[in-house]
Specification:
Elements lengths: L2 H33 L2 E5 L2 E6 L3 E6 L4 E2 L2 E5 L4 E6 L7 E4 L6 E3 L1 E3 L2 E6 L6 E6 L2 E9 L7 H12 L4
Parallel strand pairs: 2-5, 3-6, 5-12
Antiparallel strand pairs: 1-2, 3-4, 6-10, 7-8, 7-11, 9-10, 11-12
């Protein structure tokens, strides 16, 4: 092969590689946006942001993963908690008025269908211990995450 053909061949391979990588990265980003569940660690606690009306959490024996779920406002939410013993007492508490909603154990999962008010950090109590929280906001994209996460941790601080 002549030197010119070799240079052209190498440039073509490079360009195809760059475009291929770009396409793969764009598809990965699109999948994250379609799912719209983003988890972050703040001050040692896991925070998840979701636009879904079904919230699934797993219990590790101490805390729920993710510890705090920030959800976009919906008419009704279904909350499912996995990994909790069937004889545990599980409820959700509204810190504004102290109302406690017991969760039902169905098919190995604690579940609750409920409506949640905006800007309230609901606590999830497992056997009289704060193990997680859910906060509802109007729009996930307009939230100052650092400020919100800090506010939630301060609000939950008494229960930790």
């Amino acid at each position: 092969m002549s030197k010119q053909k070799m240079i052209i061949y190498m440039l073509l391979v490079f360009i195809i590689g760059v475009f291929g990588g770009l396409i793969v990265n764009l598809n990965k980003d699109k999948k994250i946006d379609d799912n719209n569940n983003h988890e972050e660690i703040v001050s040692g606690y896991s925070f998840e942001m979701t636009d879904k009306n079904v919230i699934n959490k797993d219990y590790d024996g101490t805390y729920l993963k993710s510890f705090v779920t920030v959800a976009e406002a919906q008419d009704e939410f279904t909350i499912n908690l996995n990994g909790i013993n069937s004889d545990s007492e599980v409820m959700m508490i509204d810190p504004n008025n102290g109302d406690m909603k017991p969760m039902n154990y169905e098919n190995g999962v604690y579940t609750l269908k409920t409506s949640l008010d905006n800007d309230v950090s609901y606590g999830i109590i497992i056997d009289f211990k704060l193990s997680g929280s859910i906060r509802v906001v109007n729009d996930l994209n307009s939230v100052d995450k650092d400020k919100l996460f800090n506010e939630i941790l301060i609000a939950l601080g008494c229960g930790l």
